[in-house]
Specification:
- There is one protein chain.
- This protein is of the alpha/beta class and 184 residues long.
- 27% of the residues lie in helices and 27% in strands.
- The radius of gyration is 16 Å and the shape is globular.
């Protein structure tokens, strides 16, 4: 029998993949505009962010805006043996290669590892969110483990169609401090 989190994960993955190109573009634009005007963005020098997959909100415009504003961009590298993430500074697309789970990740030999305490703002991905700022991601638990002792700011970019009233949380689930919601 499939558990409720797995069902929600699967249902919302389909929902996100089925969005029209036009609607996806409008949601991306609203989320980016809201992020760029948010005090968390304005007050942060080092931004932690994933390289988005096709069903996720496009992070490349965010990364490029951060570079343009002189911010430091750090992206995660998964360490599957320990189910952990480590962040590395990237300065161009050439600092990335397809690696774990077919994700674009930093090339360790070309990038510098950045301590989690140096990340001012972490943009946390997810598939489903609730009104208490909990999330369901892809099921690896990488972000929940990373967030257990992460004391800086966290934000998630959320389309209203990803919001539910309440997620049944477990002891290891970590809430996000701020949700930026696109009402498209």
């Amino acid at each position: 029998m499939i558990d409720i989190k797995t069902k929600l994960r699967n249902d919302y993955l389909i929902k996100l993949r089925d969005l029209s190109t036009d609607k996806r573009m409008r949601i991306n634009q609203e989320l980016q505009k809201s992020l760029f005007h948010h005090e968390l963005w304005l007050n942060s020098d080092t931004i932690g962010i994933t390289i988005s997959q096709n069903h996720e909100w496009d992070t490349w415009p965010i990364i490029e805006r951060a570079w343009h504003e002189g911010k430091t961009v750090v992206v995660p590298k998964c360490e599957p043996k320990f189910k952990e993430m480590t962040f590395y500074q990237i300065d161009s697309r050439e600092d990335l290669a397809v690696q774990f789970f077919n994700l674009l990740e930093p090339i360790i030999e070309k990038t510098n590892k950045i301590a989690k305490s140096k990340i001012d703002l972490l943009v946390v991905p997810g598939l489903v969110f609730d009104h208490y700022h909990y999330r369901i991601g892809h099921g690896g638990g990488y972000y929940d483990r990373f967030l257990t002792d992460f004391n800086q700011e966290t934000v998630a970019l959320v389309w209203k169609g990803q919001l539910i009233e309440k997620i049944n949380i477990e002891s290891f689930d970590q809430p996000i401090k701020e949700l930026i919601i696109a009402d498209v």
